[in-house]
Hints:
By secondary structure, the protein is an alpha+beta fold. The chain folds into three domains: 2-42; 54-160, Immunoglobulins (Immunoglobulin-like, Sandwich); 232-432, 3-Layer(aba) Sandwich (Rossmann fold), CATH 3.40.50. It has twelve helices and 22 strands. It has helices at 6-25, 31-50, 164-180, 182-187, 211-217, 252-269, 296-304, 315-325, 345-354, 368-375, 381-407, 419-432, and strands spanning 2-4, 57-62, 66-68, 73-81, 88-95, 99-102, 105-109, 114-123, 127-139, 145-151, 155-160, 193-199, 221-226, 232-238, 246-247, 250-251, 273-279, 283-286, 290-291, 331-335, 359-366, 410-415. The strands form five sheets. Strands 1, 3, 5, 7, 9, 10 and 11 form a seven-stranded mixed sheet that branches. Strands 14, 17, 18, 19, 20, 21 and 22 form a seven-stranded mixed sheet that branches. A four-stranded antiparallel sheet has the order 2-4-8-6, with no helix packed on it. The radius of gyration is 33 Å and the shape is elongated.
Amino acid sequence: MIYPTSRAVLLMAVGAPVALLIGLISPGYWVVGGGWAALIVGLVLLDAFIGPARARVELTLDSPRALGMAGEGALKVKAVFDRGAPRRAEIAVETNERLVAAPDRLSAEFHAGEAEASTTLTPLRRGEGEIQNVWLRWRGPLGLVWKQVREAPERKIAIIPNIQAVKDEAIRMFSREALFGLKTQLETGDGSEFHALRELVGGMDPRTIDWKQSARHTKLLAKEFRTERNHPVVFAIDSGRLMCDPLLGAPRIDRALNAALLLAYVSLRLGDRAGIFAFDAKPRVFSGVLSGVGAFPLLQRVASAIDYSTEETNFTLGLTQLAGALERRSLVVIFTDFADTTSAELMLENVARLMRKHLVLFVVLRDEELEAIARREPVDADDVSRAVTAEALLREREVVTGRLRRLGAHIVDAPADRLGPALISAYLDLKRRELM
């Protein structure tokens, strides 16, 4: 695109009243106005012709592939002219509603035909950010025209939950377990998978003696076991309307994703496999069951694709499709919420069906705000009404969790800010007890 600058418009505007005045004083010289306009148009065309051509510039972008909430990233824009570069250019960046670029207008100076400018990308909400358009414009040598090129890179940036703090907590937890021998106990100890033979020493269980191998080697050898690995751990995340309501300043689904990604990191580190499945009125995303710590970035990108929803959750469709996609017995970690026992009936029915083949760990986000309302000393009639309602809701939640326990589900009931560590503890307990 080529268009006139404000200088060209100003010159054209200045000539108009002068030409009008000359025409009024001496009508025979009215052609001066036309001549002035023609001169300016000619200069504009000359400026457009002699300046650096639009086809000779190449724009490249360097941006992060993922950004964590409450984090920042740099977007670098580089412009290269193969010849005849201008001295200075302006750059503008357009993003979608999930990202903000600050500043969104940049200035860059060219040296040896190259210029580079950078801006800061800040995520506004979890999901998929996008750099939609990048503009580069520069003036002609006379300063009368702008030459502009536009790139539509459609560069996707996954905006993932900010789990750096909980990831650091997981690393510290691993360090503490290594110090006290707990991590080693998970790998070698009272598991069911044969690991190695070792010479019998004091304190070992005599029942682990392998008599055939002991006779062959003429010394007592005992079997050493370790906990089984390669177990599928699948996070079934309800992304429906209730899970998008806030809890302690953040949507419930964001807190669920933080905890799920933390446990995914731990389970991958311990040799298990992990996958994320999200559903509301219908299934939305499924990562498949992945193995290896190198799969963790992919799980983060899948988590970023789980959008906030206003639809009611269809447990029948969601959990049935999940059960059909799982080929072997898995640990299914369910993150959901319910308003009352009536709305939880379908959930309970489908969880019971899922438990016929799989081990279910059901996560309950403790609503501390609701508990505070129920405990608060009433001052007026409205306080009494709120306290009674809150107590009734809490009682119904206890009824549902009680029914889940009787069905055989394992329950994690923890405050929102301690959900991740509580979930890890429950997972490690299931591994120690060989329930997976």
